[in-house]
Amino acid sequence: MTTPNLPESTVAPFALDEDARAALFTSARSAIAFDDRPVDAALVARAWDLAKFGPSSMNTQPLRLVMARSAAARTAVIEAAMPGNRPKLEQAPLLLVAAHDDRFHDHHEVTAPGMAGFHERFESNPEMRAGLAHSGAMLQLGYLIVALRAEGLALRPYGGFDKAALDASLMPEGWRAEVILGVGHPIAGDDLSGERRGRIAADVGVREL
After folding, report:
1. pLDDT (tens digit, 9 = 90+) per residue, 114-123?
2. Which of 111, 133, 177, 207 has the lowest CB atom count within 10 Å?
3. What's the predicted TM-score (pTM) here?
4. Is 100 exposed, middle or buried (0-12, 13-18, 19+ CB in 10 A)?
5. pLDDT digits (tens, 9 = 90+) for 157-174
6. Pairwise CA distance, residues 83 & 182, whole Å
C-alpha cells in the first residue's frame, strides 16, 4: 500500500510494521460516522495508561478527561459546540472532553517525587502554571489520540465550542475544557471521510540548520 505524502524509508527499516503505522497514522481518519457499538470505559482507561508515558515537561501531567456518558452530560457537550458540529457529535457513541487541571502540580509526589521546591515554584507563579497546564495538556492529548487509535477506536477532535459553558456545567473544580473528542468504533470496510486532503512534505516543513 502506498500512502500519499509518505515516502518510503531510505534510512532503516521502520520500527513499526506497515499495519501498525497505518492504524496509527497513514490510514487513520478523523471520523464522523461510527459503528453502533458502545465504547467500553476500559478502552479509554487503557489508552490513558498508554498515553501517560509520553514525554512531557518535568514529567508534569496536566491532561484530564471527562467521559460524557449520561444524557445530561452529552446534551451539555453538544449544546456547547458550534451549531455545525452538533450533528457530528450526536453520532459519536462516546463524547470525551479533554481538559487541563490548573492544580496539576498538586500531584508532584507522583510525577516528580523528591524534586525540591517543585510545588512551591508552580504555586507561586500562576501565570507560568497556566501556560504549562495548557501546553502540557495539548501535548498529552496528541499522545492520547494515538493511544485511542492503538485501541482500535476512531475519533474526531473539535475545538469550536463554548469552553466557559462546559467548565461551568461539567468540569470539576480547577479543570478547564480544551478539546472535545467524538469517539467510537470504526465502521468496518467503509470509508466515510471522503477524499483525503494533502499534507505538507518534510522538504517544506523541516529545516536542518
Report:
1. 888 999 999 9
2. 207
3. 0.90
4. buried
5. 999 999 999 999 999 999
6. 15
